[in-house]
Amino acid sequence: MSDIQSLVSQQLEALLENENNTVSNLSNAAALIFQNYENINWAGFYIYNTETQVLDLGPFQGKVACMHIQPGTGVVGAAFAHKKSMMVPNVHEFTGHIACDADSNAELVIPIYKNERVYGVIDIDSPELDRFTEIDKNEVEELAQVLAQHI
Q: CA geometry: angle at 125 spanning 46 and 20, to 5°?
């Protein structure tokens, strides 16, 4: 984590201190992201199910979403499969994009690591093309590190 922790990351750390309910922690993290980032229309989680080997919808804020995503499919599945953050300025130009919400035009997906494995991903969508910046990516990666300590 960087020497200068983002304000949102500090808020998440304070919110989750001494909390150990995964669903509650993911729910509050989704709400915190949704409230603190402008021009987004969806913020939430996809959690890897080791039994079914798919990413299952977790807590989120926004419109109804896709329930299951195969690893390697869409931005969410690609970020999970490649174990790397993905910032897509125009999802309509992303091969294999899954259009869960037709209003979404840009997407940021950040893996969450737990015990050196990808536990799931943070997924943030925006109706604005080219919405996400390197600063956003770095902040959300920091949020993923904080969150990993509380799930």
A: 40
User: What are the φ/ψ torsions at residue 132 (nearest 5 degrees)?
Assistant: -90, 145
Q: Which tens digit of pLDDT belongs to each residue from 36-94?
A: 999 999 999 999 999 999 999 999 999 999 999 999 999 999 999 999 999 999 998 98
Cβ pair 75, 94 in contact under 8 A: yes
On whether the CB atoms of residues 90 and 130 are closer than 8 A, the answer is yes
Q: How far apart are the first and last CA of the chain?
A: 18
pTM over 0.85: yes
Tell me: the pLDDT tens digits for 15-42? 999 998 999 999 999 999 999 999 999 9
CB 37 within 8 Å of CB 52: no
Domains of the chain: 26-148 (3.30.450.40)
> What DSSP string describes 27-68?
HHHHHHHHHHSSS-SEEEEEEEETTTTEEEEEEEEES---SE
Cα 143 to the center of its chain, rounded Å: 9
Structure tokens at 13: 């750390």
